[in-house]
Amino acid sequence: MTRPSILFVCLGNICRSPLAEAAFRRAAEDAGLDVQIDSAGTGDWHIGAPPDPRAQAEARRHGLDISFYRARQVAIEDYRRFTHIFALDENNLADLRSRAPSDASARLSLLLDLVDGMEGQAVADPYFGGDEGFAETWRDVQRAALALVRDLTSDS
Ligand code: 4NP
To answer: How much distance in Å is there from the Cα of 52 to the middle of ligand 1?
Structure first.
């Protein structure tokens, strides 16, 4: 099996995809998976910024420090560099598809398609809401992280 490389993509890369990255980093480490992991945003507003303080607080509640993450925008090279690119919602997926180069090798899909019973659903954007939205984001990305580890382990 080629070494899997996973990119999580949301809009700003400061709320949802950093939490997805953190949840999957830990799940992959716990499972002893050799995998490359990153996250990015379709938008450019927050390039270079750390995760939203509410996302950092949510990660800390689960024992994870994401304060050193820095937002970046999806680059054309990502489509060739990663084996899987997971979009956090359907708008992110549509944007990713519309920008894909003709020689893209990454498989593009919706993150919650990984989770039984949540296929087709979005990880709701918590940016304009309250703290409880971040707890919901964590629940969703944690489920997806465990499902992805299970899928990658059963593939090999
Ligand atoms: P994210 O959340 O896509 O989960 O990082 C957002 C962050 C910033 C904005 C929207 C969503 N924004 O409009 O700046």
So the answer is: 9
